[in-house]
Specification:
The complex is a heterodimer.
Chain A: E1 2-5, E2 8-11, H1 20-27, E3 46-49, E4 52-55, E5 68-70, H2 72-75, H3 83-90, H4 100-115, H5 134-140, H6 151-162
Parallel strand pairs in A: 1-5
Antiparallel strand pairs in A: 1-2, 3-4, 3-5
Chain B: E1 5-8, H1 12-19, E2 24-27, H2 33-38, E3 46-49, E4 58-61, E5 64-68, H3 73-78, H4 80-85, H5 87-94, H6 99-104, H7 107-112, H8 163-169, E6 173-177, E7 184-187, H9 188-191, E8 210-216, E9 223-229, E10 240-249, E11 252-261, H10 271-277, H11 284-294, H12 307-323
Parallel strand pairs in B: 1-3, 2-3
Antiparallel strand pairs in B: 4-5, 5-8, 6-7, 6-8, 9-10, 10-11
Helix pairs in contact in B: 5-8, 10-11, 11-12
Chain lengths: 166, 327
């Protein structure tokens, strides 16, 4: 029984109570993913699990045999930041930075969802390719809270990477 | 968290056998159950993980769609057939939770999700749903989100979801797998139950029974609207919601299927509204009459009194939008 995190294989824990979040941080030693509320309300623990973003605090690690997880450490590094990571720096999209790994994992997956044509609650026409308006970005990122209130700059960073202008 | 044994389901029959034993809970997405286990509201001795089962697709069936219980909320909401033929369902799902939660949450688990009554989720408070006989903290407590219809003196909790409200308006059917060989079908409208004297039972599932799928009827057309009223514009449970399928021919209403969320212990359907509306010409006076019928048995406990006019206005606004009557 194992799980792959950022291309590295790890044995799943014996204790089924270990959340995927605690497994990532304490067992795999990847502290980039953050524990905020631990109840699925803040999004700080967002990771990409088999291609989709999830709250890693609300699932048990043992449930993910043979699954693949990407955390913030797998998205980029200080030397080689992803486009979103660079844009968050450029646009000053954080203050304390605690929610930022979750914001960036979430936004990374969100851009893939838009590319796949997935609608959101802000999408007028369910069958058309969704636009990437500020309203769409805000709706799609509503699962990631930022207590410092850096929202305008988070939207600006995502907008830049999505190529929808300043 | 209390310790528990973890088992992977080998087959649906295996899962049913395990769930027939007291203390065993099935887990799929886990977005509600894991949270409740952390709070020790749920303390299963054993979890059976359904994710190893291979029945998880959305397939065409009898002119409609069969949505396997393990399909995620996202998989349903983005499905091309759902978006074109059942936009009400896609809209209701997208109005709920966040993308992260919808990616994990299963259709079966969504139907079975528990109330968000704060007395239910706090083990230091009395709650007849969590601990029968302990009393209802909400009756004389903070009850802004609570039910105005279908409640009892033992429990005034609401069913909080959006998806099931759309499914109730669509008159979808739930396919249940249980100890008997033959699967049984129950209307979504009959799946959840009012508390009466047994508020601990949210729905009609018998011991060992599991939701296997939800069947949508053949496409019904009409204008399909989901109007959700909440305290912030995203990621909040409804204070009330209205799911509506309205069709018109030659200036008269020919279909008016309505269901209401977050005002009752279950997705609320009142057939009298359909009878009142169908055959009539749309008009504000007609909609006001429908709104009066909807709440003729409604009762608040103080904090939630506002829901009575709120759901009336939400219904009227939805009907006006669907029929292009100016409000």
């Amino acid at each position: 029984m194992s799980i792959v995190i950022n291309s590295v294989e790890y044995h799943l824990p014996n204790d089924p109570r270990v959340s995927l979040l605690d497994f990532i941080r304490d067992h795999a030693g990847l502290p980039g993913t953050k524990k905020g509320c631990d109840h699925g309300q803040c999004g700080a623990c967002t990771v990409i699990l088999d291609g989709v973003r999830v709250n890693s605090c609300l699932t048990f690690a043992v449930m993910h045999d043979s699954c693949e997880v990407t955390t913030i450490e797998g998205i980029g590094s200080a030397e080689q930041p992803s486009a979103l990571q660079q844009a968050f720096v450029t646009h000053d999209s954080y203050q304390c930075g605690y929610c930022t790994p979750g914001q960036i994992c979430s936004a990374t997956a969100m851009l893939a969802e838009i590319a796949a044509g997935w609608p959101s609650d802000a999408t007028e026409n369910l069958s058309a390719q969704p636009s990437l308006s500020d309203e769409e970005i805000r709706e799609r990122m509503s699962g990631n809270l930022c207590r410092c209130g850096a929202y305008p700059n988070i939207v600006a960073a995502i907008r830049e990477v999505a190529g929808t202008g300043e | 968290m209390k310790s528990f044994e973890y088992v992977r389901a080998e087959s649906i029959a295996h899962a049913v056998t395990c769930c027939s034993e007291p203390g065993t809970k099935a887990i799929a997405g886990g977005t509600n159950l894991v949270d409740l286990m952390k709070l020790q509201v749920e303390t299963p001795k054993r979890l059976i993980d359904l994710n190893s089962l291979d029945d998880r697709d959305i397939l065409e069936s009898k002119g409609g769609l069969r949505i396997a219980a393990l399909a995620s909320n996202t998989e349903v909401a983005v499905d091309r057939r759902v978006r074109s033929d059942y936009p009400l369902l896609a809209k209701a799902i997208l109005a709920g939770a966040t993308q992260q939660l919808r990616n994990s949450a299963s259709v079966g688990g969504n139907l079975g999700q528990r109330t968000r009554c704060p007395y239910f989720t706090n083990i230091d408070q009395p709650c007849n749903k969590r601990e029968p006989g302990s009393g209802c903290g909400a009756l004389k407590g903070v009850a802004r989100i609570h039910a105005i219809l279908g409640a009892s003196r033992h429990c005034i909790a609401t069913y909080p979801g959006d998806m099931a409200v759309a499914m109730a308006a669509l008159d979808a059917q739930v396919e249940l797998a249980g100890p008997a060989e033959k699967r049984r079908m129950v209307a979504v409208r009959e799946f959840h139950r009012c508390p009466g004297d047994t508020p601990d039972q949210d729905n009609i599932l018998a011991p060992g029974e599991l939701v296997a799928a939800v069947h949508l009827p053949p496409p019904v057309g009409g204008r399909q609207l989901y109007r959700k009223v909440r305290e912030r514009s995203s990621y909040a449970f409804a204070l009330c919601s209205v799911a509506a399928i309205i069709d018109m021919k030659r200036g008269r209403i020919t279909r008016a299927d309505l269901a209401f969320g977050s005002i009752a212990p279950k997705p609320w359907v009142d057939e009298r509204l359909t009878q009142l509306l169908v055959g009539e010409q749309p008009a504000m006076s007609l909609f006001v009459k429908a709104a009066d019928v909807l709440v003729d048995d409604a009762r608040g406990v103080g904090d939630n009194d506002y829901k009575i006019p709120l759901v009336q206005r939400t219904l009227i606004a939805t009907l006006c939008e669907a029929t292009e009557v100016s409000s």
